[in-house]
Amino acid sequence: MSVITLFSGIFCDADAVVRNVMDSTGYPLIDDSRVIAIAADLSGIPENKIQRAFSAKASVFNPFTHEKECSIAGLRLALATELSGGPAVVSGFSGLLLPQTISHVLRVCLIAETPFRITQAMRAQLQDEKEILKQIHVRDADSAAWIETLWEIKDPWDSEFYDMVIPMSQVDAAKAGALIEENLLKDALRRTEVSIQAEKDFLLAATVEMALCRSGHDVSVSAEKGAVVLSINKQVLMLARLEEELQSIAEKIPGVASVTTRVGKDFHQAHIYRKHSFEIPSKVLLVDDEREFVQTLSERLELRDMGSAVAYDGESALSIVNEEEPEVMIIDLKMPGIDGMEVLRQVKRTRPEIEVIVLTGHGSENDRQQCMALGAFAYIQKPVDIEELSDTLKRAHAKIRQTIS
Questions:
Q1: Could you tell me what percent of the chain has a pLDDT over 70?
Q2: 171, 241, 296, 404: most buried, per Cβ within 10 A?
């Protein structure tokens, strides 16, 4: 029996189609919420962070944390684990994770023109047309970014990627379900020894990829009958040492018969391979209106494998705090608009888990006392020794990790 994946545009009656297919086939449902929950258990990454993997907007800290890549690895492992239980209807973004080598998968896309989708939404939710159109644009952007991340395809509705693309403006949910069931019976979708092995290979590759992510690595993994290939897609100075470390991790996974490493197609691009260290802060937000100073500071921290983002004023800093999840902030006190003291006050009121280091060249003893009373982790005067600041960052990070554990 085959697996069905259903990917759709928003407001294309996908829920009704899924119900019809489940009723006619008796297949259980594996949707995004289920895959995310299992991925969170398998990876240790919170569900809300895994959910962000589906978003077109990546975290500013992702080049250092590899959080999106690790979330995708967790999603792959969760889906592969679930499919080992037998046929199912996989609904949502997760279904696009399945490799084309698994031939017993019927890949279905449900889509319609924008006017139809607006009408459907207004009938169901009675929302304002402008707000509905905004939701469509955001979801379509997420869909496009997702399929490009996974398969380097820019159009999420590209008929070349699916076995069926059903225009929902021309058929109702019942007819769409009947078309899917009809195609499900075709011989090309039957399980074979080859397709079953491909499903096992998918599970093994996902297991290895997750193990590498837990060790801070970001590489592509493929598998074929126990032979695992690791592809390094970023430049690395000591390639042989990295290959040796990757192999030592992968070889310990049950079912792995051999491990081969190779450089991928993006290896020679201007990206440097960084192993994520869980002991070093990688989500540092630097806030200072002195642009040259803060950019230089960011670069010096990067040389010490500390990931940072930069804001040049208090308002931008608070916006980043609302949208991202910085662990540590380094803020100047004297800034135009919202000053550092007010940023500290608001951050500790709304996000008390964030450790804030005040780094200023203009503060007084009274300022220091007030900052510490508001909950600052440290108060340091400029000019600062980079080693002193690095040590302070590590201590702040250690305090956060201790609190989490």
A1: 96
A2: 171
